[in-house]
Amino acid sequence: MTAQLSAVVPVPPVAADIARYRLDGSAVLEKVVRALLESVADPAAVVVACAPAHVDIVETLLADDDLEAVQVLAGGTDWMQCLAAVVTHIARQANSARYVLVHDVRQPLTSAAVRDSVVTALGEGAEMVLPVLPVTDSVKAVDAQGAVTATLDRSTLRTAQFPRGFATARLVRIVDTGTADEIAAALATGAPITTVEGDPHAFVVESRSDTVFVDAVMSSRR
C-alpha cells in the first residue's frame, strides 16, 4: 500500500508563518513532513505546495539531508490552488500514486494511529477518508440578530481532522470543481466519504502562543 501512496502538504500564504513556528526544536512543517514520511515508501512521494514567493522559505525549513528528496512545488495563493498544483503534478507521473494523503500543517500532532486508519480505509476501497471526532460542546443555532433559536442535536455532529485520504482519481475530480473546500466538493460530486476515529490530542496550531500548549502536550507524551 505504501508504494501506491503520496502525501501532500498544502501551505498557502495564510499558513506560511505557522509552518515556521517551532515545536520541540523543529519547525512545524518539518514535524508534519517527518510524520508523513512514515506512511510512504519513497520520500519523493511527499510533496509540499506553497505560494511561489514562499518556495525558498519552505526549502530552508526542509533543508536536512534526510529530507532532500521531499518535493517542493510552487502552488497558488490559497489552499485549493496549492492542492491543485500537487494533484496535477502527481497525475503527470508515469507511475502515479493511486492514493493521496492530504495533511494540514496546522495539525502537527496527529497520531500515527490516525494516519494508519486512513491508509487502511483507502486500501479497503474507500474513495475519501475523513478522521472525525464527536462534538462534545453544546451547539446553538442563532438568528440574524444573534439570538439563540435552538439547541442542535450534537449526536450527529463531528469535527473534521487531518490527514484526509483520497483515491487519486477522486481527488482530481474534487479539485476540478474549483470549490474552496474538499469536503464540500466531495459532497457536491457525490463522492462517498468514509470516516475513521480522529485524535483528541491533534490540536490545531493557529498562533505562536498555541505552540506553548502543544509543546506541553508533546512533553507529556514522552
TrEMBL record:
Alphabetized InterPro entries for the sequence: IspD/TarI, IspD/TarI_cytidylyltransf_bact, Nucleotide-diphossugar_trans
Keyword check for Nucleotidyltransferase: yes
Gene3D superfamilies: Spore Coat Polysaccharide Biosynthesis Protein SpsA, Chain A (3.90.550.10)
Source taxon at top rank: Bacteria
Molecular function GO terms recorded: 2-C-methyl-D-erythritol 4-phosphate cytidylyltransferase activity
Keywords, in A-Z order: Nucleotidyltransferase, Transferase
Name of this protein: 2-C-methyl-D-erythritol 4-phosphate cytidylyltransferase
Organism: Mycolicibacterium flavescens
